[in-house]
Fold these 4 entries.
Entry 1:
Amino acid sequence: MTAIIDSRPRIPRLAMVFIAAVVVMLLNAPKAGAWSQSTDDGLFTVANRSGYSSIPVTVTSYNGSDTNITFPDKITVSGTEYPIVSIGSNVLSKLAEVDGITINVTIPDGYTALDGNAFKNCYGLKSVTIPGSVTKINYNAFEGCKNLSSVTFADGRADLSFGNKVFLNCTSLNNLTLPARLSNAGYGSFHGCTALTNLTVDSSSTALVVQDGSLYEKNSDGVSYTMNTYAPTSTATSFTVPGTVNGLPVTGIGRMVFQNNAYLTNVTVPASVVMFDSYCFNGCSALAKVSLGTTEVPTLKSGCFTNLPSGSVIEVANENVKNAFEPTESWITYYTKDNTTVQVKGASAPQTSSAELTAKGTGVKDGYAYYKLTLDNAENVKTMLLHLSFDASKVSKDAQVEGKKDAYVELNDDRFSLVTVKWTEADGKVDAKILLIPKDNGEAISGTDAANLLLVGLPVKNGVTGNIAMTVTAAQCAGINTEDDSLMTGTVTVNGSLASNRIANYDVYEDSKIDILDITEAQRFYQVSSRDNDWAAAQKADVNADDKVDIQDLIDIFLQIEF
């Protein structure tokens, strides 16, 4: 056998440890020129956080206790003078969230930026002037400054931009004029500003416009606007988004625009709007209906129609728009099916109804539960498609009960013909798909006459007790004769109710078992019927639900006894 020798040079273990330590030191070593230092008076700490002398210096903290604060404009380090041009995050953290104080802040001209969270939760901050040199106010810079009532923007030449949520929850801010040089306002910048009754923009602005108290921001294409802020103090119950502002179309609803509004019940959106940014209608607790005018498939970003009240409706122009709301991989992130219903314009909202019956006792054996469905409204209906759902643990679509039929549908409205009944069982549900058309291809059905449509009967499984609910999950219609589900664009209201409780309870003696005592108890009421005064007591012995206690009831009980 030939020996294989590794001729590669070996690095001693100790040397490897040393090399690794050096690498770590190099990776974590500060860059040349990086420093953090207190000002001569000790009131501020400033830092050249980037480590490069050409990068401006930032105030990182205020160390004093005086509430009249003037930020420094320069600092000398090792004989070199550096300009201070920005305010860092949480710079007044020592004074933040302290009630009952008044903080006066002077920001020198020459500062160019306020970092994210710069004055966040500074409760004592009452007013501030933004120098004309500032070009960027970053995210949440004044968030939670609940006593801030005055913000003044000094004249300046350079463009100014906001990060997001700059004045979020500034609940005392009541008057604000945005400068002409502001190119964008971020999203959510005035969300929660519940006192902001007068939001305006300098008349020479080319990027922003306020109309009826709401702020609109020009898009990057330069020829359209997106709604940035809904009027912060409005208590109106209805609102129509304008189709144009300043002669240009409004094409989008920005992020958080209507979020958590507690007043709006109806919002109408013009056809020009095709983009709905994240959370734009999220949490609108009173919102009953949003009417979308677009015939194009809209862009729906995360959470835009979530947490709406039960039964709320999103009305759309056509099936293509409706399909944008159908389940997809990302569907649940922007639309909550359990809370809202998508409705094609011109049709009634689909209804979900439940009918419940209660089986008393614990000795219930196979029987039937019967449900009645009524049509409450219809408009130009030639075809109707119904979907019913039942709990598969309680009922069965095919269980055999001696002398009775399987699950079935019986048509009661002579204006319709029963075309199809399809039963399926999956995911713990027994579902019925029912297709109806006008009898003899007759005229379309219209009206609100609460027609008695169907009787549905289902066998009940052994031992079932408690509530057994039927749910109408869909009631769709079309104005033409068709079996094509995709053409069922309209909806009608169909309600379900319990027709009769045919669940047999053989435990007449009510001792949680079935034996000779049940027959004895039933015999006490032999030949009593629903017409007799003592029917209320005797009804429990009517196990076959034919409104009388007779020999058949005694036989049925006897057959359930296990000998």
Entry 2:
Amino acid sequence: MNIYTGPELGKTNANFAPLTPVSVLKRTERVYSDLPAQIHGRIRRNWGEVAERCKRLASALSQRGVSKGDTVALIAPNIPEALECSLAIPMLGAVLNANNVRLDAKTLGYILDHGEAKVLLVDTEYAELAKEAVERSGRALLIIDIEDPEGPGGECIGALTYDALLAEGDPEFDYRLPDDEWDALALNYTSGTTGQPKGVVYSHRGAWTNAVNNVVTWEMPHHPVYLWTLPLFHCNGWCFPWTITLLAGTHVFLRSPTAEGIYAAFSDHGVTHLCGAPIIMSMITSAAGAEERSFSQPVRMMTAAAPPPPQTILAMENMGISITHVYGLTEVYGPAVVCAERATWSSLSAEEQAKLKARQGVAYELQEDVMVLDPDTRRPVPWDGVTQGEVAFRGNIVMKGYLKQLDTTAKAFNEGWFWSGDLAVQHADGYIEIRDRSKDIIISGGENISSIEVENALYSHSAVACVAVVAMPDEKWGEVPCAFVELVAGCDITEADLIEHARGELAGYKRPKRVIFEALPKTSTGKILKTALRERVESLQ
């Protein structure tokens, strides 16, 4: 006990409120109700209208029995209703489970069952998928059909439509803060490349922290115009539903990103910010002339997933689109590491700057710490840019844990850190650089080969639009690099050409021994499915 522990200094409703994204919409409605909030095709709504729709949604779900701790599942692309679910469902203390629309029915059925979903909201384009998933889950769900006027349509399979549900709700529904900021807010499932996907649980505190951190990290102004090329179902859109709402910005929706749609949004709506995987960058830089539109405003893009090739970063910035490279995982609310630019970099050549910007960087301002640790000693590896270890996180931007998986959670949280499974080095300037997923390291003749290093070498060829490198079994060396390549439209090069190009970039043992030209399998978030490519390699043997 000390003088600062007396009852006169305790928590009260006057001096303490739980950190939660729920507060974000409450303020924006009060202060900026007349400002634009949603643009979707012909739809235009201001923040007053969006807030009313969210309160109606929360009220209607409450009337239908949804309460604290209930899971509300969503299968929908980037549409206004998906944003409204992100804002409304936390008001009830319920948990939003936004699902990847490209998952198969078996996996979705597992998720609905494992997460004990009580309600499912589904865009009619995905009605058949949802119907089979619900059957596989074995759960009796209240199904709500979302009929997007910008979508292709589809069968209604639910008890009522989204608009009918809103009509049941009270537009004066009170904003409800959570009892505890540690309460669950969202449930997101990992990709499940090995076994069943794991349910990652987010808290109100963590989501609020990362939403605010996006503002700090990106130095975002009030009233940005944000283009939804990043899926809203991917780590809750990296928490940008709440970031953009906090700043009373404008959400511009694309059901599915295309070069034409992105350029049109730049030109017609004055987009200032967007996020996405490097595939979105390639989509922009490789656009055909007919797809391009002029735009005069500066545009900022945050990219994650695979490390972006320096050549792609340079091409984007030559177009007037500045790139911020971030890194993270589902378990850390999306990105939690940023390649923070330093003023001293401006004196370097554009090529040197692009190489520095391709690194993952340093911990987010509101993340306690990120380190590269030796998996055996649990100590930091040297800051030499050479010695590899595993990336580990700690702080408020780390998940609560894996749903119903005590042992897996305990293993992930070993010795006070969350262990990512990603291999990296620490540079002398404090920046980390991913070298590979632990499962993506190629061990050839006892030598470790970074698939990312090989990919970057191939990306340096002007004809390469997209590349992924995986291990290919080899009788002599055990395994060797095999490259899968998509070419820039109109380019025609041979396997021998690329292998010869690699000669000037890589040591002999690191060069790909096989190059296969074909479309790369990707997730809806733009990540290349290396699991599928490994299976493809096996089929070639």
Entry 3:
Amino acid sequence: MKTTKYFYERSKFKEFVSNITYHQLLQMSDDDFNKWAKSLRNEVATQWDTTNTPPVIGKDEEGIIKSFKKLSANKCDFLQEDYTDDSESLGIIQNFNKDASACNQFFPTMLKTKISIGKSADGGLSIYDHFALPELEDKFIRVMKRAVKRDSMYSYSRSIVNKKDENPFWDGESAYDFIKKVKDENLLSDKWKDIGIWIARVKDLNLNNYGTTNEAYKGFGNLYMSADEVNELKNNGYLTDTMLSNIDEVVDKEVLKSGKENKFYYLIRWYDKTIPIFPKILQIFRLSCGQPAVNFPALTAKMLYENYTEHITNQDKVTVYDPSSGWGGRILGAMSSNKKIHYVGTDPNTDNIIDELGVSRYQYLADFYNEHCTNDYSDTALNFFEPVEEPNTFEVFSDGSELIGNNPKFQKYKGQLDFVFTSPPYFNREQYSEDESQSFKAYNEYEDWRDNFLRPTLTTAYEYLKHDRYILWNIASIKIGSDTYYDLEGDSRKILEELGCEYKGKLKMLMTRMVGLDPSKSGILNSVKHQNKAYKYEPIFVFYKG
């Protein structure tokens, strides 16, 4: 009899009717494209609703176990020097390891988290909403046209540049001559028969950015044509409808109401005709259909547990407390640690309760790891010569962190915690569920949230922590629009220092570089230059209870 699994596995998107090639998409009329986008949306939503599988690749059970088994052996040498002049910095954490990514599969509602960008929690949208809500259908179609058909993120095509290694079928011609050669000499045949091309329009062409003097491209730049050249090639039959399907009309310029003139130029994009829409479109969903919730990296948590309890040498096991268990990354980090850890966590999100089993998803994940990725006593009962590895332990509560101190079962940990580390809610930015116990619902004004959620959460953490121990707090201030700023960083520090903690500085946890985002631009909070690249980072503030 097959045992029910409470995690999703590999997505079935390869079987979708909507999984056509990018080449087929370019040939569609607007009506056909709209039908395709609706079909795609329906197939994703249906799979999500019937199997709890969001639009991600995912791993099968064997793949999950294989990845998880790598975690304990990882040395977690992610901490690097910060060579900026930031006196508060304790270093940079550069961890882009994906071995723990399958942790997300144990939390199927993760991409249903609503992300609010306004002053109130009202109006927040999740990735799931973009597929499920009827009123978002037209918006979804527009997004697909821009991000997929016009390929605004360069997922399926890239521009022909004047460097042969980047496009070996190009042989030094101008853009105009290349298009003529494609037809006159049947260039894209035989060896290059799977290469297709289309024309993209750009405005305000700057030769220093797009031309042959482009320093950013180290001496090579995009081939481009004028509107006159494109029209001539079109009128003489060199450019097909497919090649021009992403251009409404070929024009030389437009004059805005302000009187400003935009000059248009035309680039040649090339693509592989055999490439299907999936799985590349999955990244487009994450970047274009709302902001996704992000799990805390399990290996980073493991590193912090081990590094900040290293001075504790008189105990067989350390007890760590996570006031906001989130999406399981930190409990997985604890289970995979080579240091003997007892993880204590709490989270009131009822979506993370498996009703049929009567346990939380945190417990289910931890048990899964201990069963499949450690050698426990039952596994070795028949082999007395094999060393026994006792799994790390845990206890998870379902109280809000501001109320957990009232729970008699939690009170046994008072004065027993060796380390406190979490990533708490950023006020109303992430809405994990519609539970009334969620902090953004219980305290819907920032000052109320700060005083009645943040302060008691930190007070409990401090009072339950032993002396000569650390509190690490991963939080970031949030900016709403141009005039509203919530100082979550400063308020957290103020509260902890009032309680008696000594502020030691901050760690900078680098975030994955996202397409189109320049973290060095003004207005983006918490950015750093590292190894000649600009990154957005999440601060982790370090406090010491002496």
Entry 4:
Amino acid sequence: METLQKNQTVRAVIEGYSSEGLGIARVNGQVVFVHRAIRGEDCDILIMKVLKHAAFGKVTAIHTPSEHRQEPDCPYYGRCGGCDFRHMDYAEELAAKRQRVQDALTRLGGSDVQVEEILGAPDTDCYRNKSQYPIAPNGTVGFYRARSHEVIGVERCRLQMPQADAAAQAVRQYIRQFRVPCYDEKTGRGLLRHLYVRTNGAGESLICLLGNGERAPREPELVELLRQAVPSAVGIVWGVNRKKGNVILGDSYRTLWGENTLRDTLWGLTFRLSVPSFYQVNRAQAEVLYRKAVEFAALTGEETMLDLYCGAGTITLCMAQHCKQAIGAEIVPEAIDDAWQNAKSNGVENVEFFCGDAKETAAELAHRGLRPDVICVDPPRKGLAPEVVEAAAAMSPRRIVYVSCDPATLGRDVKRFAEHGYTTVRAAAVDLFPKTAHVETVVLLSKGEIDSKKVRVEFSLEDMDMSEFQDGATYPQIKEYVLEHTGLKVSNLYISQIKRKCGLEVGKNYNLPKSEDSRQPQCPPEKEKAIREAFKYFGMI
């Protein structure tokens, strides 16, 4: 077998895509990853790098171009590492991402589940509501070149909101005008490190500059430049980050002007977001993602749901509308503060939040005897630690909804859950990151669903006429009655509490407070009165 050599030109057909969106070809039994190649194309490939088990190359000529090929619409494409798919149309990009998820679940996860669908985005440009610009030692503001820490200056990024690029231009002026030293991650010297901009659906922005020190030079002038560039800004924050390397977020924050949080709406709920709070970068597609997660959770209003890696409580609060009690856990204190505030401002009362590491929190809750019916996890790209998988499985939930931003770690974790008796029964992909290789996945894992000789039949009691079998009203009916007649919003938790007081059946999944001083919120008198009136109306008491 002839070994590939650097600077050699070979001819091959592109078979598929790598996890980074590179085309895959096979030459003399060797795998070649090809930049800007499209599946099905017959092309000449210049070998640029040869490794022990693979090689990298670029297309020099296309003999049979794909019908999905298009001219890249960004002058920085190929230099900036932000985008991966601007050389192909969106239909092929979605197909590549769906296949990536399927391969991860099959090859890494050992699952035979089929990815049901991939839900594409209506807008593939200007969708990022969080922008993070690294700043080079020479003052260049932009984005990293692919697989490097070299900053490529970008005046206008098609993925970012215009407000973010405007803030970046103001920072460039600030650096030049006042000769501000910028951070060098090799030496640890210099001040300015990153520009961070978060923009909501109304176009308002929260701007944060991260620096290797307590203060920025000429802070009033900096604030003025940013406010002129971004008139819709609601706040400007200075973040202190003295960590070595290219870590973005800092350990402390100081407000230079305005507010230190930003509010945005999602699923009809309002969320307060501080700089460190996790929030999906594509607001429109986040609603699609959470809708799919709620669908997979199959909540009926009677369940206790645990949300690990809850961030500012977005998934927790969305799920809380459909279950009896929702519990969120997150390691970032600021995010938990935001989560509690978000619950309060939205009038969501059947929630509780814990601040702590996911594996420690899961283990603690399991030790306390918590037995959630549904666990939802939305971890960072590195996925779940083995201890988190073990702790989650030890609580024996009926269903686990796994929201993943990395198919590879998802496949690994699905296999780990399988070792604890959980089968992957449904999977769907959602594209939150158009033009990039990243993709979100929602997976449903269930314990004891089926075996090879059984057929699972799914049905919903809501679809059946159960009137002759039930004595009262459903939780949604009670909520609707109370809202219509009193204007009050009541939670499933409150209804369950009053049911217990009245001696009514509340369902086997209702967990009583462990003590009288439990943090579980108690139904206010005015809401209790309204719920009792509803019970009377429906003939329950």
